[in-house]
Write a structure and sequence with these properties.
85% of the residues lie in helices and 0% in strands. It is mainly α. The longest helix has 27 residues.
């Protein structure tokens, strides 16, 4: 139920989305925004806000896992493992008040975002 929250929030707030590809891009960007807020909360010593923002990122990652299409090959299995590991890092960041774990997640998500943008641009140009 919580997992669908992120997806529903994005779709409700962005009725004019052009494609599912754009939605995935927005989800990656959302994780980066939420993580930035979580890091700011860690620096401010605000446990409640830190937890709120990390939970938002977790909801998006969970939705990304839920929408994987395993019939498309091994990439879905790889992404499932990668997303699951990012969830684990965020949980550890929350438990230990550790912004370095958030930085690690951000590095992975930035790489995924760039790869996603490149792959969808190539697909759209074909």
């Amino acid at each position: 139920m919580v997992a669908n929250l992120a997806y529903n929030t994005y779709t409700q707030n962005n009725v004019g989305i052009e494609s599912p590809e754009k939605l995935i891009q927005m989800m990656y960007e959302g994780i980066l925004r939420f993580n930035m807020q979580a890091k700011r909360s860690i620096n401010d010593g605000d446990i409640e806000r830190r937890t709120y923002w990390i939970n938002r990122s977790n909801a998006v990652l969970t939705e990304l896992i839920n929408v994987l299409d395993y019939s498309q090959g091994t990439i879905a299995h790889y992404l499932s493992g990668l997303y699951t590991y990012q969830l684990r890092l965020l949980i550890e960041a929350n438990i230990h008040n550790d912004s370095t774990k958030i930085d690690e997640v951000n590095g992975v998500v930035k790489g995924l975002l760039e790869a996603w943008k490149e792959s969808t641009n190539v697909a759209n140009q074909a």
